[in-house]
Amino acid sequence: MLLWFESNGSHRHRRVALPDSSVTDARSSLRASLRARRQAIPAAERARAARQVARHAAALILRPGQRIGIYAATAEELDTSCLIALALRRGCLVYLPRIDRRRRVRTMHFARLADRSSVNRFGITEPEGPRLTSSRLLDVVFLPIVGFDRHGVRLGMGGGYYDRAFSFRRLRTVWHAPLLVGIGYASQEVERIAPAAHDVPLDLVITERGIIRCTRVSASTSP
After folding, report:
1. pLDDT per residue over 137-174, tens digit each?
2. Sign of the CA dihedral with 187 first, then 214, 137, and 199 last
């Protein structure tokens, strides 16, 4: 049995994740709790956090000529418009995710930011145009997070698109490009998330409070 504690300021709530067959249910329950918390963040705090995250990212990551993958935020996610604008000013090439439009194909590509865009079936804005790039060729990718821990375990919306797009990283032991950076609010951190077999760990997480360098848990020490 795996135990973890959800961080919420000075309070910690003990949670229990049962082995294997119950991991999915435990993650779904945690996801719902964290989404409710994220949705409750006031507008002024959201705007301030977005600016702070962009500043933290600029200080460490953004370099001219880099291929940057970044999401177009939904209403409840941390807004990425500040970060996108800053990346463009720094001379980065910006790519946004584009879901395969065949409904039975659950894959995601990255398309160059363009003047024309459309809204996909999930309500997410996507760039139009043919300029696609492989996820393997990106230098840095900023991922949306519902929850995260300091071992790089990311809890997303549950579709698995990012994990499939970067599944090749699970096979590498030395070269870990592209750099995977989760961005979100500090209140989305939990002490420990039960990992799933398909998870691709994050390298960094950036919140309004600063940059967190994730530490891997070896197979011999993980729960």
Report:
1. 999 999 999 999 999 999 988 788 888 889 888 876 66
2. negative
Q: Which residues contact 99 (CB under 8 A, 6 or more apart)?
A: 107, 108, 120, 121, 122, 124, 126, 161
Burial of 37 (0-12, 13-18, 19+ CB in 10 A): middle
- 93 forms beta bridges with 67
196 contacts: CB under 8 Å, gap ≥ 6: 23, 24, 27
Q: Shortest CA distance to 203 belongs to which of 214, 218, 191? A: 214
Tokens 């989760």 locate to 182
CA distance linking residue 71 with residue 53, whole number of Å: 14
Q: Domain containing 187: what range?
A: 2-213
Structural domain count of the chain: 1
The reply to whether 219 falls in a domain is: no
Q: Around Cβ 124, how many Cβ atoms within 10 Å?
A: 18
- Residue 178's contacts (CB-CB under 8 Å, 6 or more residues apart) are 67, 69, 135, 136, 138, 139, 140, 141, 166
At 68, which amino acid appears? I
Residue 6 has pLDDT above 50, yes or no: no
pTM to 2 decimal places = 0.81
CATH at 14: 3.40.50.10420
